[in-house]
Amino acid sequence: MLDVDAIRAQMPSVVNAAYFNTGTFGPFPLAVKEAMAAHVDGVWTHGRIGDARYAEQSDIEQGAREALGRVVHAPADEIALAHCTSDGLNLVVGGIDWQPGDQVVIGDFEHPGLTVPLQVMGERRGIEVVIAPITDAADPAQVVADMLTPRTRLVALSHVVWTTGRIMPIARMAEIVRAHGAVFLVDAAQGPGCVPVRVHELGCDFYTISGQKWLCGPSGTGGLWVNPASLDRIQPAFPGYPTMEKTPDGPRMWGSARRFEPGTVTHTALVGLTAAIAWRESIGGFDATHAAAMDLSAYCRARLAEVPGIHVAEVDVPSPFVAFAQEGVAAPDVVAGLEAQGIIARYLPGTDLTRISVGCWNDRSDVDRLASALAGSACGSGSKTG
Description:
The protein is an alpha/beta fold. The protein is 42% helix and 16% strand.
């Protein structure tokens, strides 16, 4: 059983506020602060060049690949380092040899990190983006199957929908997409750290990883898992020094996921990411911390359902997200009102929903505080309109 008090003691940000926005930025544990500070002190004292420093930088990069690989249960050579989830999405979208008239199938509530690159590529290369209404569908996989045509080159969908937190049946979808012959890209900004991931069981071609959200690492970190069987299905979108292996015969393209790495990485940030992952493993591991978050999110759903005027978005396969609407109050106003009371949440553009991200660092007192704040605002709203 997790020691929630000990976890919270290492995360001042979750004690100083009821922190419910891990889906945007996860809270830093002490281990991240200490690791990054030590690295900065080292390069400040000894510099960033020289054989020893170059070797250290290589070790940091490989350590980050290995850590991300442990999160998704894949070897390090299947991980390409990236600066964020949007990097991973762009690496795939930009690596396909698009032809005019090609189609892409996406979900109906995909994040701009995916929709913007596709919009730009559509304008440049004449591809068509087809939207599959899967967010509330009874059978999302069948909806995707029905949308495929001979012109479908790519299917790109979220693992965990960033609005309601519904978990998509990625493995079944992958079977459908693979049989069709299209590339399957999964936007997993809300995947690793939010839900347990064994990426080989999912069967997709490419799977993005965010470092700054549920992994509680620094901004500017993330990765892209590349199915070994899909290595040659796209080309490097940013060919350059990091994409090449240095050999006695000269540089050549890496024979692993490293060929897709988009450019110079920030080693201090990678040190922090690796420390964040090691910390999560040290407090119980990803499966145990997810189970704790799921227990608390169930409690959160039940408490919010008791508040007059609050409508919780129901999903068939839940995650640690809880989304709700409040009668008579716009979601941005809900979030602003909560923040004024020391409760950090997120409103979802294009919807009337406010999103609560529940982590293993939250406790029931956080949820009770949220419910009480919403109950108070509901009473106030009722007195004004009555």
